[in-house]
Structure formats: structure tokens, C-alpha cells
Design a protein that fits this description.
Length: 118
Amino acid sequence: MMKNRRVRGLAIVLVVLLIGYLGGLRIAHPQEGLGTSLGSAKTSLVIYRAGDSLDFENKIIFKSNTGNTALGMVAGTNGKSAYVNVDTRFEQVEQKQVKGKLLSVLPFVGVLAGLVGL
């Protein structure tokens, strides 16, 4: 009986994750960028919607010029590229570098992801 509940619960979680993935939801572990009052970007996981939104003041996940995944806020855009505030600096980002628009931050979960090498 207990085994059936666990299997059913695991199946439900997997179906929800699959539906989210097909709907464009992704999870990332940024290595740099904006933080929250609960910690830095490096200690968090973020949930984002895949796409290349460079609208003014959007919080985005992107591939930084340093090669890391970063979290930043669009400070200015010309349509093809944008200046993104990445904590203490600005970085010029092209649309092809953008992974998506931030939906939610999961603070402290990134510490565990860092321990396993994600």
C-alpha cells in the first residue's frame, strides 16, 4: 500500500514536470548576477520561461560574456541587444545569449545544486 502511494506520487511529480517543460518552463543555477535579500544568485535556483525577451526592466537568465549562466535586469535595449545590470556591472547581451525571462527564485536550493556539481 505504501509503495503504491510513493509510485503514484512520483508519477504525479514527473507528469507536472513534463507539462511545465513542454510549456517552456526551465530551471537554472546562475553562477553570477543579481541577488535577493535571501542570498546571492549563486546560492539560488531560478525558474524561468524559455525565450529571448529583451524588454526594458525584464529580469532575464542569460549566458554571460564570462561563459557563466547569469541573472540580470535589462537596463536598456535597442531591439537586437541590451545592456543588462549584473549585480555590480553592466554587460552588453545579444538576443542569442538570452535563455529566458525570470519567473521565480528558489533561495538556498542552489547551495545543494552546487554541491552535486550543477
